[in-house]
Amino acid sequence: MSTPRRLDGMAWPDVGDARGAGVLVVPVGSTEQHGPHLPFTVDTEIAVALAEALVDRRGGTVLAPAVPYGSSGEHAGFPGTLSIGQAATELLIVELVRSADVFDGVLLVSGHGGNAVPLRAAVARLCAEGRRVRAWAPAGAAEDSHAGRVETSVMLALRPAAVKTAAAAAGDRRPLREILPELRASGVRAVSPNGVLGDPSGASAAWGRTVLSRWTDDLLAAFDDWRSHD
């Protein structure tokens, strides 16, 4: 297997100045609260881990540095959350992809559900301009959508020192569809004072590795399907 290509280890002559530089894989995350036990960078770290797994397994790809900010206004009630909003997220992605025309295409690997709307709008706009771009995000359970067992387990697998297990506690465990209207109107804090949507109890590094493996398989399948239809 060849050494994965990453922009953080390349200079411009390594990329080239004509099409054929490969697919640029861009992790897109957020900087937002993840309960009292997880760091603000969970979504970005997950996006990076999945993007790295893809680039490691598929030739003709180049890993870009992560976009660490996104649309996280629903978490504004918690100190430390940094959000650029939907409009800015959409514009950032549009301009970033426009600047990447030397590549054969751009795959956006998103680790934050709140980015779904601006990413969808950005991709539609870019595709209408004739650019090759796709956005992908991992699937999760509706009753464990934020800082619950899944994300806690994944962080235990990726960076266990960052998980404050003694502070982990359940939040609102209702399915996301039930709380979405209130969440959109008043933010996460209105439905979950500790910022958790789910329950981190039972989290483990072993389960986190299983989840990451499943997500990686899904990402690889989506990438292969996208490239086969180019």
Explain what this protein looks like in three dimensions.
- With 230 residues, the protein is α/β, with parallel strands linked by helices.
- The protein has one domain: 3-Layer(aba) Sandwich (Rossmann fold), CATH 3.40.50.
- The chain is built from 8 helices and 5 strands, in the order βαβαβαβαβαααα.
- Strands 1-3-2-4-5 form a 5-stranded parallel sheet.
- The chain is globular and about 50 Å long.
- 42% of the residues are buried.
Structural features:
five-stranded parallel β-sheet; 42% helix; globular; single chain; alpha/beta; 230 residues; 5 strands; Rossmann fold
- How large is the radius of gyration? 18 Å
Largest sheet, strands/sense/barrel: 5 strands, parallel
Order of strands in the sheet with the most strands?
1-3-2-4-5
CATH class descriptor name: Alpha Beta
Topology, element by element:
Layout (H helix, E strand, L loop, with lengths): L4 E2 L5 H4 L7 E6 L13 H16 L3 E3 L21 H14 L6 E6 L5 H13 L4 E4 L12 H10 L17 H11 L1 H4 L13 H24 L2
Helix pairs in contact: 2-5, 2-8, 3-4, 5-8
Q: What would you say about this model in short?
A:
This protein is of the alpha/beta class and 230 residues long. Helices cover 42% and strands 9% of the residues.
